[in-house]
Structures are given as C-alpha cells and as structure tokens.
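Protocol step 4 of 6: structure prediction from sequence.
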Amino acid sequence: MTITITAFERSPDGGKGLARDTRVRWALEEVGQPYTVRLVSFAAMKEPAHLALHPFGQMPTYQEGDLALFETGAIVLHLAERHVGLLPDDANARARAIAWMFAALNTVEPPILELATARLFERDRPWHTERLPLVEDRVRQRLDQLSDRLGDADWLDGAFSAGDLMMVSVLLRLKPSGMLDGHPKLAAYVARGEARPAYKRAFAAQLAVNNPQVAG
C-alpha cells in the first residue's frame, strides 16, 4: 500500500528542516519505505477534508490504506514497529528507545517551543524582558540534563534509534537561537543526526518543495 504524508505547501521555516513533516520523512528514509507527499495550503489545513485526518488542523498526517494517523510521535512509532531500522531487537532496549521518544516530545520539546513563542510572538509584551530569561533557563536546565546523560556516547542508548531521531529533531529547533553552542556534546550529537544519509534525503526533499532552485 502506498504511504502518503501531508506537508506544507510553503513551510513556515522555508525548508530548513524544522517543519514536523521532516521527522516523518526522516523515519521513512531510515526504514527504506517509499512515500508520496500531498502538499496542503494553510487555508486547506482548516477545511473538513484535512480536519478529518488531523482534528487540530496541523501537519503532518500519514495515510496507508485504511490507516490514517496524526502526531509525529505516533507516526514514527508506527513506522519503527512495522519496519526494521529504528527500534532494537532486544525488548528492554526497545522499551528504552520508545521512552526516549516520549522524553523528546514531552520533556525536552515543550520548553524549546515556549522559547520560540517568547522570542517570536511576545517581544512586544511589557513582561517580555523579565519572562525571556526564565524561559531560557528552563531550556538550559533540560540541555544540561540531557548532555549529562548522553556523555561521550554517540547516541542515547547504544545504536541509533527512533529515540535519537525524535530527540535530534527537537534539538534542531534550537539551532537558530545559538543555545546549543554552550553544549558541545549535544551540538555534536545533532550534527551526527544531520550527517545520516536518511536525514540528508529527508532534508533535501523538504527543501525542494520550498526552494526548488537551491535544492536542485
């Protein structure tokens, strides 16, 4: 059955790999599954046809036969469980990889998204100057904890897994802020993720939609 994902017709990040469809593209590339992409405009995201796939009117979605999924964590986990390449064979290691997926989305990403909101949309608020350092401190705390756990290892728990895919995808959101510069182990960790051939293919595919001349 053909796999179809949806992606922004014009991504808010201009094809820099921060849109969440990149995570799904990366997972599909890692497990070697071909897929097609249906591009959706901002207006179409709020129309009934898309809301039937994603009740919150967001991106991306995943369709395979009668199965329709939303939320990148659920989509990547589905792919990892169905195909070899993103979860270890050992049951305990498999469970730990899934735990890291949840940690990326539930523990590390929220303060990073809060930082992006504070920097992009709250700069004109009277309390912005006082709030921003507090948000930055919360991000640094998570980065400190994650860096301590990663240590000198290449990946979070042995071989590369879906947990690393999600964590690197989340940390990539910090690149524009420069906050990874103070955590060289995490910066190197993200660079290892970006160096993977599957990630490069996913990034190029998303870039081609938004900047076809650059991608070509």
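Step 5 (inspection) to follow. The chain has a mean pLDDT of 91.
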